[in-house]
Each structure stands twice: as structure tokens, then as C-alpha cells.
Amino acid sequence: MRKIIAFLTIFIFASYAYGEFSLIKLGIDNNNTVLVTGGIQGDEPGGFMSANLLARGYEIISGSLYVVPNLNMPSIIKKSRGINGDMNRKFDTLSDKDPEKDIVEQIKSLVLQPNITMLINLHDGSGFYRPKYINKMMNPNRWGNIAIIDQATLPNVIYGDLEVTANKVVKELNKHLLDPKHKYHLRNTHTAKGDKEMLKSLSYFAIKNGKAAYANEASKTLPVHERVYYHLIAVEEYLKLAGIEFKRKFELTPQGVKKALDEDLSVLVCGKFMFYSPKSRLGYIPLSNDGELEFDCDNALVALTKNKDEYNIHYGNKIVTRFTPQFFEYSNLINEIEIRIDEGEPKFVILGQKISAKNSFEIIKRDGVRTNIIGYGTTPVDESGIKISKDMIKSRFSMDKDESIYRVEFYEETDSKDKFIGMILVEFVK
């Protein structure tokens, strides 16, 4: 389970080969819980980036919200609609031999939880839907910028007046258009009347099981931050209609969304490691030699993959950085270290944090612990008790693109090989 202060994350594993999805719970569980999903198709970043920002950038004041940003993380990593076929066409019948059988069943179980009253699935579609043909990018065969329902009503179900609810969302979206051609429309697929593809979809699975379900599509023509802008306007309106109160930590404008997305990418916290606007390639990173990678990140769209002798850190569709590992036995000997920053008094710092220094820092010696300042020395000796300034560290060992952040690693000294305890980052600021 990931350690997140603002919300709870539960992992549901299918297998090592086919990954996981994350269920993030916001608010307090009750019998009126909205479930928002993204990433069921891995080549639709507007959908999964919106769900992830919803999970990380919102606070639920009243009500209950579940968010799954990464329904199909392996396909997200590969920028593929579906590395094992379209997952959104696997919710009717599915062979036991399908590699995604287990994870599809897990998703079904989640949707069927009694407290789930509404499902909102976020997608990116091509062009801009229009009821009548205008041109090749604006016609009835396009799926961009629409609200989708499977049927007009779902009798005797809470929020079952699907058409009325979706039209309210469309009306709200059209108050905030960035360009008139972005106009939203409602699209009723009338799935039960024989839409063979939609009969297999996640939303229709919910409908069949008495759950109100909606899909929101943003146009692939738009830059990702504008897709997210439209998706979040839609989600907020659905939440209001469901009586769920929330606070947002950023401004819901295209510029505010872009800034929030950039900030989310700039800091990655992964177990014993932290990355701030990391370089495209980093030096040796100490990983556990017990075969289990302790690399849990607090961001559902971050993943670690191996390519030969190198590891990649992914953020959604992007490879953020690459590194070569060094393998060590891990130790929990200490969880804090004493450090003097500039000319101040020594203070204790929890491992895994970033500290700032104007001119220098010095690690205070601790018995049984070896300090390794990456980029300072060339031999594995203890480098505590040394006043370190930026010009004493080789810039090519910096962690970030601005060459201002350096890592300080700590090891438990043993009779045989040292054990990795953890690290802090030191940022030299002007």
C-alpha cells in the first residue's frame, strides 16, 4: 500500500506481466460514491491525466469519490490503445485465456460495489463530433468533445435519468469553450438496440448492472492540457449533480491545468527515492538486491520498467528518466540524519527529503553510518564531517536539469558489504 497523506491508495494486481491499477479514495466512504476512471485505452492521455489530476489536485469536502487513473497501465506505458487488444471491449464475454481476464474481473468487482452509484469514464476521441457532416474532422463519425450515454434512462436507479444529466453537463461545458468549434454534444449510442462494440464496453457493463454510467470524450486534436481542462469541467459538473462537494488546488483554466500538470511531473517520490525535474539520464541508483524493487511511487501514473541493464521511469506516456542500477541489501538502521546547512546549527532531517543550501552543507558523523556524496569523491569512504560547497561536486552528477540538486546516500557499515539506508537531496539555491 502506498503511503499518501491526502488519500488512500489500494493496489489491485493482475500479474507482474500485466501490471496493476490504483484505486484512490477521496472523502469518506458512503452509499453515494462516484467512480471516475481513466486510461482504459493507453493512447488517450487526456483521460488518464485528468483522472490523475483529479486524484492529486482535489479535496472532497462532503461525499465520496473513487478514482482509478490507470486502468490499463501497461498500455499507457507503451502508448498503445491496448497491448492485448482493446480493454474497453472486454466487459461482455471474455476468454479465460485472455491475459487481461483477471484485471477485467477486478474492475467489474469494483463497479459492482454497492456504494458505487455513478461511473464516469474519461476518453480522448478523434476530431469533433457533429450530428451532420461538415468536413472530415467534424462529422457523425468523430468522437471528440462529446458526452456519451448508452440509453436515455435507467429506470429505478439513482441518477438514472441519463439524458437529462448528460445534457446538463454538455450545457456547462459549452459555457467554457476555448473555441466555438470545440462545442460539445450529447451522443446516445442506444447500445441495447444493437451497437455491437458498445455492448462490450465498461459503461454498458455498469448500465446492465443498474449503475448510472457516463463517458466524456475530449478531442485528440487538442493539446493534452486543454483536453484535461474540458474533462475536469465535465467531472466537476457530474460531482455537483451527485451532491459531492470539493475543493480544487489549482485554477481551472487551460493555463492553470498546464501548470498543475507540470508541477505534478516535476516531483516524483518513489519509496527511498525522490526526483525533481530529473535529467533524461541519471547515474547509478541503489536498488534492493532481494529481487523486490522498493520503488513505490506516490503517483499512479509513474512506473518502472527494465530494458536490458537499464531502468526507465515512466510518467504516463513519457519516459522521464533512465538509470543504471546498483544493487544493495537495504537497511532501516536510521530514518533521520543530522546536517549543518550553511553556517547554521546542526538539525535533524528525515531521510527522503530535499533540503536547500545557499553555500554549503555538512553531514554530522554518526556511528555505523557511511555518507556518500555523489559526485564528490571517487572512493567508497565516509564523507561526513566535510563542509561541502557546490563547486566541490561534479555537475554531471546532479539529479536535475538545472544542475542544482545532488544526492547524499547513507549506508550501514558492516563487516561485509554495506547496506543502503536511504538518501537526502541537497539543492543549492541562489
Gist of the model:
This is Metallocarboxypeptidase, peptidase M14 family. Helices cover 19% and strands 34% of the residues.
Keywords, separated by commas or semicolons:
26 strands; Aminopeptidase; 3 domains; Metallo_peptidase_C; 8-stranded mixed β-sheet; elongated; Peptidase_M99; 430 residues; alpha/beta; Metallocarboxypeptidase, peptidase M14 family
Strand proportion, as a percent range, falls in 25-35%
Largest sheet: 8 strands, mixed
CATH superfamily of the largest domain: Zn peptidases
Residue stretches low in confidence (pLDDT < 50, at least 5 long) are 1-19
Taken together, the total number of domains comes to: 3
Form type? elongated
Remind me, CATH topology of the largest domain? Aminopeptidase
Cα distance spanning the termini:
38 Å
CATH architecture heading of the largest domain: 3-Layer(aba) Sandwich
**Distinct helical segment count:** 7
Q: Would you report the number of β strands?
A: 26
Residue share in helices? 10-25%
Helix/sheet category? alpha/beta
- Average residue pLDDT: 92
